[in-house]
């Protein structure tokens, strides 16, 4: 049977999709509009259209259809496996690759490639995220740890939670940062303006990012960052917040930016305690070619 959500309109005014979008934090406006279009939204038993203007006391019923099952297909994506043993895999993800399947990305994801190349993956997460302990954004390149069994998954996830794992990133940002080091502590949550974005908001989750300047160019700075927390889009949001957005970032950066394959952000170093041996393992991945080429061009310009 379909899931149902009931919303009673209080003092809100305006279009039904806008009002529902403000009330239902877990769903996007486009998702709500899709439900209205597919006639899953009714008021007092009558199916309504997207331009319906709400009135105080309206009882809105949303019948959420069962999600379409994603068919997880192993694909030969020739993933760059940096390390593998019986418990863990370390993979260097290219820019442009989504970590796990979703409605908009059913194939070509890191998980599809892992299913082809790795025999066993942990089952702790839902069916579309086997082995996935943590994520990086589609257009961020670099290192990810993957668990091959549930015991390893729990151990690695605990290290992330306890902040004992090591994660360092390299980013090229707009502007010339005057100081050598910085610590950004600002809570992050879903943007109230654009639901596809995250933002620094008062009632967000705690987020801490450390950075250090590696090199300055005319109009840009190359920095190394270390995460204390792992919020969605954390580096991108924090750097925009302090006025030095990541170059090439289509969501948080300026329109006039460096051409690449998305943001110039690379997860270059990953360290964790091995779930079985207890040994501290540290891996490093070189910058993607487009990143190196862009830095060379900036050097030549200086």
Summarize the structure.
This protein is an alpha+beta fold. The protein has helices at residues 16-23, 29-37, 110-117, 150-161, 234-241, 289-301, and strands at residues 3-8, 41-43, 46-47, 59-64, 80-84, 88-93, 141-147, 166-174, 181-185, 188-190, 198-200, 208-217, 220-227, 265-273, 280-284. The chain starts with a strand and ends with a helix.
Describe the structure.
By secondary structure, the chain is of the alpha+beta class. It has helices spanning 16-23, 29-37, 110-117, 150-161, 234-241, 289-301, and strands at residues 3-8, 41-43, 46-47, 59-64, 80-84, 88-93, 141-147, 166-174, 181-185, 188-190, 198-200, 208-217, 220-227, 265-273, 280-284. Strands 5, 6, 7, 8, 9, 12, 13, 14 and 15 form a nine-stranded mixed beta sheet that branches. A four-stranded antiparallel beta sheet has the order 1-4-2-3, with no helix packed on it. Strands 10-11 form a two-stranded antiparallel ribbon. A hairpin with a 3-residue loop joins strand 5 (80-84) and strand 6 (88-93). The mean pLDDT is 91.
Q: What's the topology here?
A:
Blueprint: E1 3-8, H1 16-23, H2 29-37, E2 41-43, E3 46-47, E4 59-64, E5 80-84, E6 88-93, H3 110-117, E7 141-147, H4 150-161, E8 166-174, E9 181-185, E10 188-190, E11 198-200, E12 208-217, E13 220-227, H5 234-241, E14 265-273, E15 280-284, H6 289-301
Parallel strand pairs: 7-14
Antiparallel strand pairs: 1-4, 2-3, 2-4, 5-6, 6-7, 8-13, 8-14, 9-12, 10-11, 12-13, 14-15
Helix pairs in contact: 1-2
